[in-house]
């Protein structure tokens, strides 16, 4: 990555990977893609298989390692570079490694939850150590959420990761 983009590797947010027509991959195998920031471990990003021969993968770069980690590996100048790795692996092993998709879903859920919390907070009352909200608050929030999504096409895009 140093050769192509230098320190701006984390600005690359997507990559396309595909199998060529004459590529011979066993049906139980996949080409797995991994990312590595300087001084970090490789992190699974996605995969292609014969059943899914192409994919556009979102690249969520892992945090770069600490200065101490980088100094330990300074003798190996390749460890100071971001890397994209590809390996042939069993499909069954990859299903358990799909943490990137899980992280994206978790972030999306957190954004929707934050929207709900902010809405509810504007209607809250306090009763001792408890917050009190109207009984129909979820219905009101969901209706407002749907109306805003219909009115403003960019609203839902703001939740995209």
In short:
By secondary structure, this protein is of the alpha+beta class.
Write up what this structure looks like:
The protein has 161 residues and is α+β, with helices and mostly antiparallel strands. It folds into 2 domains: 6-97, no CATH class; 102-157. The protein has helices spanning 67-72, 91-95, 99-121, 137-151, 153-157, and strands at residues 14-18, 29-36, 43-48, 54-58, 83-90, 125-127, 130-132. Strand 6 (125-127) and strand 7 (130-132) form a beta hairpin. The radius of gyration is 22 Å and the shape is elongated. The chain starts with 13 loop residues before the first strand and ends with a helix. Mean pLDDT is 81; it is low at 67-74. Residues 105-157 form the Hikeshi-like C-terminal domain. One of its GO terms (biological process) is protein import into nucleus.
């Amino acid at each position: 990555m140093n050769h192509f983009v230098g320190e701006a590797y984390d600005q690359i947010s997507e990559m396309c990977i595909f199998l060529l027509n004459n590529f011979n991959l066993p049906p139980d195998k996949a080409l797995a893609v991994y990312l590595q920031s300087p001084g970090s471990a490789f992190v699974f990003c996605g995969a292609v298989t014969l059943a899914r021969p192409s994919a556009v993968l979102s690249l969520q770069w892992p945090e770069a390692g600490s200065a101490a980690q980088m100094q330990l590996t300074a003798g190996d100048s390749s460890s100071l570079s971001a890397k994209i790795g590809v390996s042939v692996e069993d499909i069954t092993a990859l299903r358990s490694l799909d943490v990137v998709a899980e992280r994206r879903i978790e972030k999306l859920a957190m954004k929707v939850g934050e929207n709900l919390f902010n809405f509810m907070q504007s209607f809250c009352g306090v009763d001792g150590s408890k917050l009190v909200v109207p009984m129909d608050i979820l219905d009101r929030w969901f209706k407002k959420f749907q109306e805003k999504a219909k009115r403003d096409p960019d609203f839902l895009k703001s939740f995209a990761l």
